[in-house]
Write a structure and sequence with these properties.
Blueprint: E1 17-28, E2 31-42, E3 46-50, H1 57-64, E4 72-77, E5 80-81, H2 86-92, E6 93-96, H3 108-118, H4 123-136, H5 152-164, E7 170-174, H6 182-194, E8 200-205, H7 208-214, E9 217-222, E10 225-230, H8 232-240, E11 243-250, H9 257-265, E12 270-276, E13 285-292, H10 297-306, E14 310-316, H11 318-329, H12 333-356
Parallel strand pairs: 3-8, 3-9, 6-7, 7-8
Antiparallel strand pairs: 1-2, 1-4, 4-5, 9-10, 11-13, 11-14, 12-13
Helix pairs in contact: 3-4, 3-5, 4-5, 8-11
The structure holds adenosine-5'-triphosphate (ATP).
Residues 28, 31, 33, 51, 53-59, 206 line the site of adenosine-5'-triphosphate (ATP).
Length: 364
């Protein structure tokens, strides 16, 4: 029996499938880059493809964008097969590759007109679509500047503008935050979020925080396979069998550290509570790390409110998320072993050929 496909659909949502990937494999020569990979992605979501370098993110996205042919398996976008109907699939997709396909000598407006024409936007709609794409990506103030004069962050925005200028159903963004500074990262995150609803978005990254803050659903890819999928909370639950939450409160005459700790311990599913360094410096503020067997955040808020304790912060522990990702991304013995085996075989072949070749330049 076939295992259920990892899906981006949340419980009770029946929006319709935008992407359906079944048993996808992609080989470069005899090297497997992706496979077996199966997944479905539902309409209107922002989905993150998270994996370390070389995990297979770019290869998967290039197959989706009809930029590479799969070796085997089937990939459908909006019900259309990427091998059988690539032109129709391309019309439904906006794609920002890891290196944006920009022409430095063109102005932003000229380039977006060009991209819109390539995507088949009707002449009557062209100027409106170009203006809309520039407004959404906040590049309109630089419309008449040549692309070569823009910062890397702006170039990425223009790259996204070309991906959405034809209003595609699906927007595929390969590492859009790569090389951006912290301010540009925050702006890019907002831009990606602003695409939600009108488009289904799939975004790749090797940075957990980017994915977890921007995406509704996460697919973790390792050695070309999806090893876990779900919301951030579901992934933590799968791996850690629970959740770690940092709770910051304002202490008062009625809320001593001991009383707060006791209140937290009484919450259902809480296993352990420990006082940790205060998340904010200052007197009268304390932070407690809560270990629980499930998502206890709502119950913690209720318990603290009932006990009249002033809650000033409640966050999932960052280290928890990091550890989930690192655990999920650890390369399997399989891939590492195959690489080591290839190296050993090459070394043995070299040794053999050296042994059978008479040494040159030796003593006569
Ligand atoms: P990165 O974030 O570093 O780009 P990635 O997760 O996007 O990594 P891919 O670029 O898809 O991963 O690469 C997956 C595997 O395929 C890697 O082992 C990579 O070396 C290999 N690979 C990618 N492109 C080619 C190519 N054109 N020819 C041969 N091997 C390739």
């Amino acid at each position: 029996m076939r295992a259920p496909l990892p899906t981006s659909r949340g419980p009770g949502e029946l929006n319709g499938t935008v992407i359906e990937i079944r048993d996808l494999y992609k080989y470069y020569g005899d090297q497997k880059a992706v496979g077996p990979l199966s997944a479905t992605i539902e309409k209107g979501q922002i989905v993150g493809l998270l994996g370390l370098n070389g995990a297979g993110k770019t290869t998967t996205l290039r197959v989706l964008a009809c930029d590479l042919l799969p070796t085997s398996g089937s990939v459908r976008v909006g019900g259309l097969d990427v091998v059988e109907r690539p032109d129709e699939v391309r019309a439904r997709i906006g794609y920002l590759p890891d290196t944006p396909p920009l022409y430095g000598e063109m102005t932003v407006r000229e380039y977006l007109r060009y991209a819109a024409k390539l995507h088949g936007v009707a002449r009557a709609d062209l100027e409106r679509r170009v203006t809309e794409a520039m407004e959404l990506t906040e590049t309109i103030d630089r419309a008449d500047d040549v692309i070569a004069s823009l910062s890397h962050g702006f170039k990425q925005r223009v790259g996204i503008a070309q991906a959405i200028v034809h209003k595609p159903e699906l927007v595929v963004l390969d590492e859009p935050i790569s090389g951006l500074d912290p301010v540009q990262i925050v702006e890019m995150r907002e831009l990606v979020r602003s695409l939600r609803g009108e488009h289904t978005v799939i975004v790749s990254s090797h940075i957990l925080q980017e994915i977890s803050e921007t995406c509704d659903q996460i697919f973790v890819i390792r050695d070309g396979e999806i090893v876990a999928s779900g919301t951030e909370a579901e992934l933590s639950g799968q791996l850690l069998q629970g959740m770690r939450v940092d709770v910051t409160v304002r202490l008062g005459s009625d809320s001593s550290p001991d009383r707060v700790q006791d209140t937290l311990k009484e919450v259902d599913k809480v296993r352990e509570v420990e006082a940790v360094d205060a998340a904010e410096p200052g007197k009268g503020i304390a932070t407690f790390r809560v270990l629980a067997t499930g998502d206890v955040r709502t119950d913690i808020v209720k318990a603290l409110v009932a006990a009249d304790v002033a809650l000033i912060g409640l966050t999932r522990s960052e280290r928890e998320l990091e550890s989930v990702f690192l655990e999920l991304s650890k390369t399997t013995g399989g891939a590492a072993e195959r690489r080591a085996k290839r190296k050993r075989a090459a070394k043995a072949a070299r040794a053999e050929s050296n042994a059978s070749t008479p040494p040159s330049g030796g003593a006569a």
